[in-house]
Write a structure and sequence with these properties.
single chain; about 230 residues; mainly alpha; Catalytic domain of cyclic nucleotide phosphodiesterase 4b2b; 11 helices; HD_phosphohydro
């Protein structure tokens, strides 16, 4: 279930304001606070079981952990704020193709709102481009900021096995309206793509996450493949 945005920690608002000021926002404190409140409300939607405020907080914390790898940490922080701001879980195709996070729409929202806050256009465009880099989770080899954002977003894959099971259950809950057989097939394709594309993580500091992430993904994939065989039978 989504988190009531009124209960969100105050640091969310101040975190957003600091990052926006850091990239040149000229808006008033109240305007920055209003934009932050709107984003917190978006991340608190009732249809969000995994892609919620907890995921946003985790992503922001991971960005901080990897901040030494960035070229401009504030741009990455803002991209983390916006990366799943627009979300929909209304269909099987939505899950299979985008995982619910409407990346192009989120990128456009970032561009629109940051520009309205007085962030220079080229910097707002850069935040939008970073958000767009999550569409396929294949950041350019020469873009450290995109690599940090992608690694932060995927960091849940490397969590302890018991927490990975909680993550899997939350993802399933977001798509509870999709028939189990359809969900299993779609999830298998997503996991196979993750494993086939090479290293999951790009930044040097995140390399220690690679082995546990692969173990988690491989274990989930094996379990779902067995389930699919039973369903097909």
């Amino acid at each position: 279930m989504g988190v009531n945005w009124h209960d969100a920690p105050q640091w969310f608002r101040s975190s957003f304001a600091r990052a926006a000021r850091g990239v040149g926002a000229t808006a008033t404190d109240d305007e920055l606070a209003d934009t932050a409140e709107g984003l917190v409300a978006r991340w608190s939607g009732e249809d969000r079981h995994y892609h919620n405020l907890k995921h946003l907080a985790t992503t922001l914390h991971r960005v901080e952990e990897l901040s030494q790898e960035t070229h401009d940490a504030n741009l990455v922080r803002l991209a983390a704020w916006y990366h799943g701001a627009v979300f929909a879980s209304d269909s099987k195709s939505t899950y299979e193709l985008k995982g619910g996070e409407q990346t192009p729409a989120s990128a456009e929202l970032a561009r629109k709102e940051l520009t309205a806050l007085g962030v220079p256009a080229e910097r707002a465009d850069r935040v939008a481009a970073l958000v767009d880099s999550l569409l396929r989770h294949q950041p350019p080899a020469d873009d450290a900021d995109a690599q940090v954002l992608n690694d932060a977003d995927l960091s849940m894959l490397a969590t302890e096995p018991q927490y990975y099971k909680v993550y899997c259950a939350a993802v399933r809950d977001e798509y509870g309206h999709i028939p189990r057989a359809d969900f299993v097939r779609a999830r298998i394709r997503i996991l196979e793509r993750i494993l086939q594309r090479g290293p999951i993580f790009s930044t040097p500091q995140a390399q220690s996450w690679e082995a546990p992430a692969r173990q988690n993904v491989e274990a989930e994939l094996a379990r779902l493949q067995k389930e699919q065989a039973k369903l097909d039978a």
